């Protein structure tokens, strides 16, 4: 006797409809009917009285139904436990990088320490704050980098880094002689930049204060990756979020921008997540921050 067929019988008996039970189970009605008939053949007696308009239980079906329901409930509980155990033992963390800081030492240190310690495997995607949070909500990501202030009560957060925009200037530019620059110094300065086709919120938070201060933006249609090539070819300035001690490209110098507030990035996950591998990833992040 196939236990699955008993469970299918229980679902039909509870709804007294093969079509409704098939929709609930997500199976074809013909398949469901065939499984119940196979069960009846194995048992040697009918479980249903079928007419063109209705289905009702036979006395034998009524007698068997409580045990079939108990079996179906037990199988559902076992499947839930299997799913939970599989999740607990999944060594993968799906991590949403942020395109503005994918290069950051903190991120690289976190991923290196987690993976080299044999704690798990990290798969990555890239998206802005809104997209990463949506993916967390849909549970297609386990953790993500987002700009601080975008999260809500549904999230746990760890402050991971603060970044401050710098200006990258051609070495021959007159402003390159100064150690730092004020916003007023940038009026009329030609700056190579990109403009995202969608999801402008993060871009405006980070780059808006500079681009709205009187610079002459030169938009690179090919995207962020092509900005440095256009800047080098046309000797344009660029905006950088890399650390101040990170070397500028050949032929360029890095200069601090005064009066700009740092942009904070946090690591986020859904509150209440308690999967072992994700907890180990989270605790590794705590240690990276502490150091």
Could you characterize the architecture of this molecule?
- With 291 residues, this protein is an alpha/beta fold.
- It has three domains: 3-88, Winged helix-like DNA-binding domain superfamily/Winged helix DNA-binding domain (Arc Repressor Mutant, subunit A, Orthogonal Bundle); 92-162 and 264-290, 3-Layer(aba) Sandwich (D-Maltodextrin-Binding Protein, domain 2); 165-261, Periplasmic binding protein-like II (D-Maltodextrin-Binding Protein, domain 2), CATH 3.40.190.10.
- Helices cover 42% and strands 22% of the residues.
- It is built from nine helices and 13 strands.
- It has helices at residues 3-15, 18-25, 29-43, 59-88, 105-116, 129-137, 201-211, 227-234, 276-290; strands at 48-50, 55-57, 92-97, 121-126, 143-147, 155-163, 166-170, 180-181, 190-193, 216-219, 237-240, 252-257, 263-270.
- The strands form three sheets. The chain has a six-stranded mixed beta sheet with strand order 8-12-7-11-9-10, with helices on one face. The protein has a five-stranded mixed beta sheet with strand order 4-3-5-13-6, with helices on both faces.
- Strand 9 (190-193), helix 7 (201-211) and strand 10 form a beta-alpha-beta unit.
- It starts with a helix and ends with a helix.
- The mean pLDDT is 87.
- What composes the largest sheet? 6 strands, mixed
| N/C terminus separation | 61 Å
* N to C succession of SSEs: HHHEEHEHEHEEEEEHEHEEEH
General form: elongated
CATH architecture of the largest domain: 3-Layer(aba) Sandwich
Arithmetic mean pLDDT? 87
Strand content: 15-25%
What's the total helix number? Answer: 9
Within CATH, the superfamily of the largest domain carries the name: Periplasmic binding protein-like II
Assembly type of the chains comes to single chain
């Amino acid at each position: 006797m196939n236990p699955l067929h008993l469970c299918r019988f229980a679902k039909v008996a509870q709804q007294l409809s093969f079509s409704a039970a098939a929709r609930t189970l997500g199976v074809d009605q013909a398949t469901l009917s065939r499984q119940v008939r196979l069960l009846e053949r194995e048992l040697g007696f009918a479980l249903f009285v079928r007419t063109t308009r209705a289905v009702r239980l036979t006395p034998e079906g009524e007698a068997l139904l409580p045990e079939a329901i108990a079996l179906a409930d037990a199988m559902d509980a076992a499947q839930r436990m299997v799913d939970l155990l599989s999740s607990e033992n999944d060594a993968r963390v799906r991590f949403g990088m942020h395109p503005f800081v994918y290069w950051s030492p903190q991120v690289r240190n976190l991923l290196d320490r987690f993976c080299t310690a044999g704690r798990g495997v990290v798969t990555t995607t890239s998206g802005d704050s809104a997209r990463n949070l949506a993916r967390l909500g849909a549970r297609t990501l386990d953790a993500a980098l987002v700009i601080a202030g975008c999260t809500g009560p549904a999230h746990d957060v760890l402050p991971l880094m603060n970044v401050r925009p710098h200006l990258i200037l051609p070495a021959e530019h007159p402003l390159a002689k100064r150690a730092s620059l004020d916003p007023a110094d940038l009026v009329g300065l030609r700056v190579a930049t990109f403009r995202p086709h969608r999801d402008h919120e993060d871009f405006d938070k980070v780059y808006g204060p500079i681009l709205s201060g009187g610079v002459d933006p030169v938009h690179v249609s090919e995207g962020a990756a092509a900005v440095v090539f256009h800047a080098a070819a046309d000797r344009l300035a660029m905006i950088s979020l890399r650390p101040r001690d990170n070397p500028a490209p050949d032929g360029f110098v890095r200069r601090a921008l005064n009066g700009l507030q740092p942009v904070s990035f946090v690591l986020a996950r859904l509150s209440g997540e308690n999967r072992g591998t994700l907890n180990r990833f989270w605790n590794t992040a705590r240690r990276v921050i502490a150091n």
